[in-house]
Design brief:
The chain has about 350 residues and is an alpha/beta fold. It has helices spanning about 120-130, 155-165, 170-180, 230-240, 255-260, 275, 280-295, 305-315, 335-345, 350-355, and strands spanning about 5-10, 20, 25-30, 35, 50-55, 60-70, 75, 80, 85-90, 95, 100-105, 110-115, 135, 145, 150, 165-170, 195-200, 225, 245-250, 265-270. It is about 25% helix and about 20% strand. Strands 2-1-11-10-7-8 form a 6-stranded antiparallel sheet, with no helix packed on it. A 5-stranded mixed sheet has the order 4-3-5-6-9, with no helix packed on it. Helix 2 (about 155-165) runs parallel beside helix 4 (about 230-240) and helix 2 (about 155-165) runs parallel beside helix 8. The radius of gyration is 27 Å and the shape is elongated.
Length: about 350
């Protein structure tokens, strides 16, 4: 099911009133004592039109039915409706009640929660469902919002950044539902005002970094990320794809990969310690050959956390840049002196994000 929005397009209505139409509801349009009251137009009847949001072709979509009950008529896309006859309208239709024109748009909410308690998810389900939205566990290309009570750098945050989607608190949907219950529509709440508290103290006042930026969807265009780990491939492939790139699982030696390393288009992913230790003898040999080839060209491997860092900064100047010397991702944690030197070179925010991305729900 989906919520629909009826937004005024008439010059006579300078405020551009919006009316939010919820699934499985009927609304009466008229000049007095109606759900949607239109004033300033003498051609509007006391009860001018009935609007019904109903299911269409199954439980996951809706249509909007208009029934004209006026003396002067109702139009959909400049076609006058027959009196008292139900007529279906579609997304982006123009609706005219007398002289007043409105645009009809559907609003989809496909919501993914992350790092919130089950009790909070249950509370979130109520307003989302009433708005005709759905709560789903896994992120996909159709997701509209990520809901968190505080921002922790999970893989779903990376997805939201890559897809240019808002990260909001549960209260956002409660306030939308409150708006929908008003007879005269108000402007929908602004998602930017519902950004969850950023957990890391060093990132306070950096809210703008977590706002949607559609340019991020093109950040990795033309880039190929190569990994020897099937689990790493599974973890990161969607984030890279959402940002326009591609990821290859190459567990055995491939000459064309070696040849492409010298270009700026191919990046070799570093493996976390336990993943590197789980490689077979042949895979370890292949990994060593890749490392040597990178070293020959003055390049380095890419750490997992760099995917998120590049996205949050919307830049490849420092992160996901094999030529950048700011961090040696092949360094082991036992080399404490080298690791300390690397961290001292990073900005305060980078130190926060240096740890691998959390894959918690």
């Amino acid at each position: 099911l989906r919520m629909w929005i009826l937004k005024s397009q008439s010059e006579e209505n300078a405020t551009g009133d919006c009316y939010y139409l919820l699934p499985k509801r009927k609304y009466v349009v008229g000049r007095k004592d109606c759900d949607i009251v239109i004033t300033g137009d003498a051609s509007i009847s006391r009860k001018h039109c009935i609007i019904e949001v109903t299911e269409l072709d199954g439980p996951n979509c809706t249509c909007v039915i208009f029934t004209d009950t006026s003396k002067t008529g109702t139009k959909i896309n400049d076609v006058k409706l027959k009196s008292k006859e139900e007529t279906e309208a579609h997304d982006n239709s123009t609706i005219a009640f007398g002289k007043m024109k409105f645009q009809l748009r559907h609003q989809k909410y496909l919501v993914v929660p992350s790092s919130i308690k089950k009790s909070e998810q249950k509370q979130l389900l109520e307003p989302v469902s009433k708005l005709g939205g759905r709560l789903v566990k896994e992120w996909n290309a159709e997701t509209t919002h990520l809901v968190m009570t505080k921002i922790i750098f999970t893989i779903k945050v990376v997805y939201a950044l890559a897809c240019g989607k808002h990260i909001v608190t549960p209260k956002f949907f409660e306030d939308i539902l409150d708006c929908c219950d008003k007879k005269l529509g108000k402007k929908l709440p602004d998602e930017k005002n519902y950004l969850p508290v950023i957990q890391e103290q060093s990132m306070i006042n950096m809210n703008a970094l977590f706002y949607p930026n559609q340019e991020r969807s093109q950040l990795f265009v033309g880039k190929i990320f190569v990994t020897l780990s099937a689990t790493q491939h599974s973890r990161l492939k969607h984030a890279i794809q959402y940002s326009g790139g591609s990821m290859i699982l190459q567990e055995s030696r491939e000459q064309k990969i070696l040849k492409s390393i010298s270009t700026s288009q191919t990046m070799v992913m570093a493996l976390e310690g336990h993943e590197e230790r789980s490689l077979s003898k042949d895979q370890s040999k292949w990994m060593k050959e890749l490392q040597n080839m990178l070293s020959t060209h003055g390049l380095r491997g890419i750490g997992e956390s760099e995917i998120g860092l590049a996205l949050i900064n919307n830049s490849l100047e420092k992160y996901c840049n094999p030529a950048s010397k700011n961090v040696n991702v092949f360094c082991t944690t036992t080399d404490t002196q080298a690791l300390s030197q690397q961290q001292s070179q990073l900005s305060e925010m980078s130190q926060v994000m240096l740890l691998p991305i959390s894959h918690n729900k």
